[in-house]
Amino acid sequence: MSVVLENFTQDFVQLVHYTQTKIESEQEVLERAKIMDELMDMANSEEDIVMLFANAISDRIEEFENKQLEWHRMKPGDVLANLMQIHQVEPKELSHIAPQLVITELLNEKQTMTLEQLKGFSQFFKVPVTLFLD
Fold first, then answer.
1. 100 and 56 housed in the same domain
2. 3-class DSSP assignment, residue 131
3. Which alpha helices (DSSP H) does the chain contain, by range?
4. Is the CB of residue 20 less than 8 Å from the CB of residue 12?
5. Are residues 81 and 57 in the same domain?
6. Hey, is 51 helix, strand or coil?
7. Which of 7, 11, 31, 130 has its CA 20 to 30 A from that of 76?
């Protein structure tokens, strides 16, 4: 019986994590979508308890996708400014990608990002290059 309870506890903790924590990457979206599909396949009706978990996971996926859409509506300089704020990065910390003066001009939309800068920011912040495309 203890093995059953241990497995239940582990599964329950995992489900709570999937339903309550925000999604940070496309990989997590795929992982949670797979779990959501499995839960939906297990349900006998819309009122089944597993549907509660499936719907909560669906909500987290929707939140992530809506956030991604917000990012894609921003200008490249605004995306960079937001990422710098989120990660608490100063322009001088990006000097390996572009000089500090250039970073300031990019933030103020006085200069457009080069392909190398796009790649550099993408790698530094671990986001898709397309996030910076206007």
1. no
2. helix
3. 2-20, 26-42, 49-72, 76-87, 100-107, 115-125
4. no
5. no
6. helix
7. 31
The CA-CA-CA angle for residues 9, 15, 19, to 5°, reads: 145
Gap between the Cα atoms of 131 and 82, Å rounded? 12
What one-character-per-residue DSSP string does 13-49 give? HHHHHHHHSPP-SHHHHHHHHHHHHHHHHH-SSTTSH
Is there a single domain that holds both residue 28 and residue 65?
yes
By the 8 A CB rule, do 59 and 29 touch? no
Asked if 65 and 86 sit in the same domain, the reply is: no
State pTM to two decimals: 0.54
Q: What is the mean pLDDT of each run of 10 residues along the chain (134 residues)?
A: 66 88 88 92 88 92 79 85 89 95 94 94 88 81
The helix (H) or strand (E) run that includes residue 74 is none
Structure tokens at 106: 């990019």
* Number of domains making up the chain: 2
- For tokens 């990457």, name the residue: 25
Verify that 26 and 64 share a domain, yes or no. yes
